[in-house]
Design brief:
2 copies of one chain form a homodimer. With 433 residues, chain A is α/β, with parallel strands linked by helices. The first copy, chain A, has 2 domains: 6-142, RuBisCO large subunit, N-terminal domain (Alpha-Beta Plaits, 2-Layer Sandwich); 151-432, Alpha-Beta Barrel (TIM Barrel), CATH 3.20.20. Chain A has 19 helices and 13 strands. Chain A has helices spanning 34-44, 60-63, 109-116, 119-122, 139-142, 151-159, 179-192, 211-229, 246-256, 265-268, 270-279, 291-295, 304-314, 332-343, 365-372, 383-386, 392-408, 412-416, 420-429; strands at 21-31, 66-74, 91-101, 129-136, 166-170, 196-198, 234-238, 260-264, 284-287, 301-302, 318-322, 353-357, 378-379. In chain A, β11 (318-322), α14 (332-343) and β12 (353-357) form a beta-alpha-beta unit. In chain A, α7 (179-192) runs parallel beside α17 (392-408) and α17 packs across α19. The longest helix of chain A is centred in the middle third of the chain and has 19 residues, at 211-229. Chains A and B meet through α3, α4, α10, α11 and α12 of A and α3, α4, α10, α11 and α12 of B.
């Protein structure tokens, strides 16, 4: 890339067909001319060589990614993070908006990841640090995707739970407990007021807790809990496994009595979720292993909302994500970005229910609710329900009590005077919140 | 986690059944007591709550991950990289070896990723920066995996190419060129001496280059090239796409005349590669989009060799990876780590051919070969063949000429006096190498 080749990688929005391009927002730190680096970034993720040798042709007009906008700031002290093998030269921090022609790969999630989060973006000369901050999709691209089958409204309809958060609980002990006592815990949680009792993301289909047996027992317990409480309940089975088994695991879980299935998004891959979406008869919930490996540091990697958008594209009805508070080491603005990515308009796609989680309990509910500012979220304690000093029924009840106090405008401490489950939750978990 | 709970997360190797555990090497930076942090790291990736409330039980003996070894060094200036929401306290850098009981999830790649690269490792209290450096597998775990179908020896047999690197070439222009001229370029490269002409990792199945048409044309060109040169050749078709289409894409490509298939490992997911491996009749080659998003920075993420090992487990016969030299911004020791992960003994699994790539040409071959120290690698120029000033046949020829000079112990510059293709390659690409 040189200053002669670079201009063909710049464009203004007005000259491009908006429906033919994704908009990719990136921040990067580069050595050398920021405009040349940005052009190179476009070239590397599209037409790295735009003509055959000896042929008068130029593939850039149709196939090049283009820089739409660029702001750069000198970093007089060099790269903000030490990078092995960093290039040399004057360093700038750059924010750029790129237009990426999605016809280069089509409406394919692996194609999208290969182009937009691929070799090109992370191996552009002069750019050792780069973070893909966001990707926005035109409606003609989105039209190829089913998106969530149920979405927030569908999930609420199933649970008959409106105008409040949905209460999930991760059954604990998460690893090691056989299906019979595991189902008893699920029942106890539902009885106290959980909407959804769920498997831990590490609990899969293993000899000490076979999925078929677990789903059958939890399914039976769920129906008992529905009769006892008069409320619809969900058992969320983790069907994470090799991708060619997901449809069969879905069937085993649903036949047993699970009425939602969970997959770990990065471990199975979002493409496998898109395939599962075509098969699924119940809501699909995704969980977040591995994502923080590339989303935590502001200087390099991928902003987590990009992966949230991919999960919504793939068809996740619920997206569990790192939530607020120091426990999850995620800045509040990033959690808000992810909440918006679930809920904001996205072509014809239904919203996904965001579930910002992490060591929650009745003691953290009000803070989370006030921070979010509305009720379209899931709340997912583990220990806050199943480690409650009075047991899981009391743990779940403490959540409902906390919510009722919030809805009534009564301070939790005041309400807790008459509600021992809430009192115990505030005492046990309040200091950590 | 407290100092009373922590000791149960420590063990010595002698007390554990080695076949029941993976060994996971991690480095991390923590605030607070490094031993408590390491215990917490084990808890979070296994039994986060190891007993029901009010039940005298302890799941740790069978299900806990354990610290086998730990070294810590104070970091008096705090975390080496600024982290949003970092915990407070005296900071240490720690290297630890953990034993992770794989019975917690079984011989499943998504299960493995969920446990070992999952929520737990990246959301351990006190540990905002952590890198999974390596994972080692016992033979009883490896016995569940097929691994590469052909491996290095099988690939060499197919190509009748022994005691030298295998010469790949990425056909360029990579994006935009229709199948007819694309096949002409492939033919030209094979004629000059490429073993394997390949699709770019971003070139998939798109209307302007349908996989079926491309594979048929390249298959026909390959057979002509085999007749013209008397050497077996491979057309490596990129079949990256939604995971439920991979088997069909494999069949389309192979029926057309492709005799190896490429998938982008992270975009499709290693589990999808494992499924493809059961179906494939030709070598599987993997490529490296996205990996650098979490492997570049030494302080946080995943060392790339972990993903290399997963690709070998999944059954990749060839693993394309970032290679040597400043262009790929990867330290030489990391490239060597990845080469070893492909080739070293790994239970019953065949070796995968490592292909360390990045802006290579006849001008970089000797350096790469000397650095590696043996011939069991693939060499994968793009522009070095297809951007050669005399065209792709000359570009490929320049690679073979360079290799012959190296094998003969003749300096390249000397040999180039009589070989204009080599001379042109050294002139065009030498400065960049």
């Amino acid at each position: 890339m040189n200053t002669t080749d670079a201009p063909a990688f710049f464009a203004s929005r007005q000259t491009l067909d908006a429906e033919a391009y994704l908009e990719v927002e990136v921040t990067f730190e580069c050595a050398g001319d920021p405009r040349v680096a940005a052009a190179h970034l476009c070239s590397e993720q599209s037409t790295a060589q735009w003509a055959r040798v000896g042929v008068a042709e130029d593939f850039r007009p149709q196939f090049a990614a283009r820089v739409l906008d660029l702001e750069s700031t000198p970093l007089p002290h060099g790269f903000s993070v030490p990078v092995p093998e960093a290039p040399r030269g004057p360093v700038h921090r750059v924010r750029a908006i790129l237009a990426h022609p999605w016809g280069n790969f089509g409406a394919s999630l692996p194609g999208l990841i290969s182009a937009v989060l691929g070799e090109g973006v992370y191996f552009t000369p002069g750019i050792p640090l780069v973070r893909v901050e966001d990707v926005r999709f035109p409606d003609t691209f989105l039209a190829h995707f089913q998106g969530p089958q149920f979405g927030v409204a569908g999930l609420r309809d199933r649970l008959k739970a409106f105008a409040r958060p949905l209460f999930f609980g991760v059954i604990k002990p998460n690893i090691g407990l056989p299906p019979v006592p595991f189902a008893e815990l699920g029942y106890a949680g539902w009885l106290g007021g959980l909407d959804i009792a769920k498997d831990d993301e590490m609990l899969t289909d293993v000899p000490w807790s076979p999925l078929a047996e677990r789903a059958a027992l939890l399914g039976e317990a769920r129906q008992r809990a529905e009769q006892a409480t008069g409320e619809p309940k969900i058992y969320l089975a983790n069907i994470t496994g090799e991708v060619d088994t997901l449809a069969a695991r879905h069937d085993v879980a649903v036949q047993g009595g699970a009425n939602a299935v969970m997959v770990n998004a990065m471990p199975v891959g979002v493409s496998a979720i898109r395939a599962l979406r075509q098969h699924a008869r119940v809501p699909i919930v995704s969980h977040f292993p591995l994502i923080a490996a590339f989303s935590r540091l502001p200087a390099h990697g991928v902003h987590s909302r990009v992966i949230t958008r991919l999960q919504r594209l793939a068809g996740c009805d619920v997206i569990i994500m790192p939530g607020f508070g120091p426990r999850m080491m995620t800045p509040a603005h990033e959690v808000h970005d992810n909440l918006r990515a679930c809920l904001e308009p996205m072509g014809h796609l239904r919203p996904s229910l965001p579930v910002p989680g992490g060591s929650d309990s009745a003691a953290t509910l009000e803070r989370v609710y006030r921070t979010i500012g509305h009720t379209d979220f899931g709340f997912v304690p583990g220990r806050g329900v199943f480690g409650h000093p009075m047991g899981p029924t009391a743990g779940a009840r403490s959540l409902r009590q906390a919510w009722q106090a919030i809805a009534d405008g009564v301070p939790l401490d005041e309400r807790a005077a008459a509600q021992p489950e809430l009192r115990a939750a505030l005492d046990a978990f309040g200091a950590a919140s």
